[in-house]
Amino acid sequence: MSPDTPGSTVTVRGTVVIDVEACKGCDLCIDACPPRVLEMTDHEVNTRGYRYPRLLAGCTGCQACAQICPDFVFQVYKYDTPLELPADPETGQ
Amino acid sequence: MTDRVLIEGSEAMARAAVSAGCRFFTGYPMTPFTELLEHMASLLPEVDGVCMNAESELEAVGMAWGAATTGHLAATGSTGQGLSLMQESLSEITNARLPLVVFNMARGQGDYFQATRGGGHGDYRHIVLAPMDLPEAVELTRLAFELASRWRTPVMVLGDYYLAHTYQAVSAPSIEGAAPEVPDWALNGSSGGSGSAKIISPLGGGTDGEEGFDLGAHYAACAAHIQEMSAGVDPLIDIGFCEDAELVVAAYGSVGKFVRYACLRLRDAGHRVGYVRPITLWPFPSEAVYDAVTGSAKVAVYEQNMGQMVDDVRLATMGAVPVEFIGGPSWDHSGFGIGPDINVPDISERILEALK
Amino acid sequence: MTDERIYLSTDTPPAEPAALVDDFTPTLITQANHHLCPGCGEPIAIRAAMEAVEELELAQSTITVFGIGCYTAFAHNLDVEVVQALHGRAPSVATGIKRMLPDGFVVTVQGDGDMVNEGLQEVLHAVARGENITCLLLNNGVFGETGGQMTTTTTLGQRTKTSIEGRDPHQHGHPILLSDLATTMDGAAYVARCAVNNAGNVARTKRYITRAYESQMAGAGFSLVEILTMCPTGWFVDTLEGPDYLQDTLAPVHNIGELKTP
Predict the structure, then answer these.
(1) Total number of domains in chain A
(2) Alpha helices (H) along chain C
(3) CA gap B251, B266 in Å, rounded
(4) Is the dihedral of CA C47, C48, C52, C53 positive or negative?
């Protein structure tokens, strides 16, 4: 199935826990993520006023976000068995 | 103690330091301190100690700082100018609560303020010991290491060119014997990974407060500690002939020995002079000075500078007796040592003048 | 459009069976919360440095000596022994420690203003002596803690508060390339330069730090790892532009790579 086909899925090998309150909105994780599955909020902010990242489907558990984050925001997990999740209607991810 | 030997002051102090347990020494050659470094360089390897010829005074005090954090007895030194370079570190080492012995083989007596007021930034004091000759230098060097350990603070031994380079027969302290045990607060890496690894910092340690340290509380504790030392360190002084003295002469260090001798001769000639020779310049033996001088008509302060210890004498006498400065700077042609005015006839003349 | 995006839950660990591969902080960083700026590269470097200590099982023999800069905050956030030194003075303090504890593992953490300005003499003498310590140089080309003034590593043309038109060689002189300078000295055993502006470089940083530590463990001599870090505040750029600014402004002058190996 092509990514543009509605109802397609994406293989997800990992996931993250994001400490939203620790984030200072620096955006470094966004570019660091190889599958580009992190996206900053537009208007939602944490209690300190910073925007923070949210996770789309497609994480590989590569730890790039955790390694690049100056504020120790991420915990990274790798699934024992990869999941199949619905692809994002906009990006296909 | 071994048999008496004829050695120079630098060697006597070096031996005293090693016998007191000093196992790390560092310095930068500068007259008249250089020989102390040389003697430590030859003695310390004999006891598995370390002596480093640092590339600068700044690095010397840094190395001594590092060595002190390991809990081993460390020392450094220089002459006044070199100590000027070390002041930032000496101030911070005091706030880091580290034991350290610092030797100033001064060029004259112009470093009294630097030594006793805390020559660096901030509000701190060091214990200062001023020997007049080699036997006293040996005793006070050993005391310096003891006080430094006990109070976890830098202690200065204030000498001069005369002390460093004069040869005198002394009972040379034995350098055999173990160094003291390393204290509990010292670092060796082992508290790493325990959840509360140790930190030694001029800003205080621990994990109190949002910042991980509480600066205000730490500085308050340092100030309280200075007060404790001021009250708890035994002030040392040498007093003579003051019970019936009309005039008491105050002096310190090698110069104090000349003054003491001058007073002795003047006594023999029938003059009622006494002397006080403070040995701990901080804490200054104020009470003892006060008690010694209140019976007399005047105090005369003799020192080879423009008037430094005279301030402390004035503070100690609290106006009970007039205090006159009869010293003054005096330089030899090299600028290193005791000047031509430091001789008994000249000193005696000034004392007699003050007696009038 | 954001309404249609499917964001996954990231509040709690996954319900499905999964292994934790990277915790919030390495074990040796006890306090994650710090006041360094958004987008600062220094915590990234410190993370790599502490992970390497953990992996080489050095935690119980390590003594770190901190200089003074923004990174000084971490002196109180680590679970390894720390001596806090003065600006520029960590190498001499580290020397005193290592000479009295030859089996100890001694690492300095210093910035460019600290090591290459105030402390240039100290570090070069430590290199010359082949002092068996590891110095970590966090180089962002500015004095970060005091607000972004020029240091000896600021590159020509780089704009700082004291070179507001850009560093001009006639007025401000040329930058000092500390790692390159160290490689000319026989006492240097391992010298490397890396950066933390992207995940690949962060991995390389970790690798170089590990090799430097191994060289100290082998008693090979002086080891230095210079880590280029982002300072968006000191550089007057957005946090997102930090990585590119580092690549375009610092990296062409302070070249990345292993410059000397034992």
Answers:
(1) 1
(2) 42-55, 90-100, 112, 120-128, 169-172, 178-183, 199-217, 232-235, 242-245
(3) 16
(4) negative
Residue of B nearest to C62 (CA): B189
Best A15, A19, A67, A73 member to test C by mutation, with max C CBs in 10 Å, is: A67
Residue intervals in chain B for CATH 3.40.50.920: 237-355
Q: Which CATH superfamily is domain B4-171 in?
A: Thiamin diphosphate (ThDP)-binding fold, Pyr/PP domains (3.40.50.970)
CA distance B318 to chain C (A): 40
Asked if the C-beta of C187 comes within 8 angstroms of chain B's C-beta atoms, the answer is no
Contacts of C38 in chain A (CB under 8 A): 24-26, 50, 70-71
Pick the CATH number of C34-260 from 3.40.50.2000, 3.40.50.720, 3.40.50.970, 3.90.1300.10: 3.40.50.970
Span C146-193, pLDDT tens digits: 999 999 999 999 999 999 999 999 999 999 999 999 999 999 999 999
Residue A87 lies in a domain: no
How far is Cα C142 from Cα B61, in angstroms, rounded to an integer? 28
Q: Is C239 on the interface with B (CB under 8 A)?
A: no
Q: Which of A29, A13, A21, A17 is nearest to A75 (CA)?
A: A17
Decide if C208 contacts C258 (C-beta within 8 A): yes
Cβ atoms B279, B130 nearer than 8 A:
yes
Contact A54 C196 (CB under 8 A): no
CB nearest to A63's CB, from C6, C13, C21? C21
SS3 of B102, please?
strand
Q: Which helix (H) or strand (E) holds B169?
A: strand B167-171
Q: What are the residues facing C20 on neighbouring strands?
A: A77
CATH topology of domain B237-355: Rossmann fold (3.40.50)
pLDDT of residue A92: 53
Interface confidence: ipTM more than 0.90: yes
Contact at CB, C99 and B56, closer than 8 angstroms: no
Sheet holding B127-129, edge to edge: B50-53, B22-27, B73-78, B100-106, B154-160, B127-129, B280-282
Q: Which of C98, C71, C104, C79 is nearest to C196 (CA)?
A: C71
pLDDT at B236 over 80: yes
Q: Would you say residue A34 lies in a domain?
A: yes
Tell me the whole-structure pTM to 2 decimals: 0.94
A2 inside domain = no
Residue of C nearest to B182 (CA): C100
Q: Where are the domains of chain C?
A: 34-260
Domain with CATH 3.40.50.970 in chain B: 4-171
Q: Is A90 part of a structural domain of the chain?
A: no
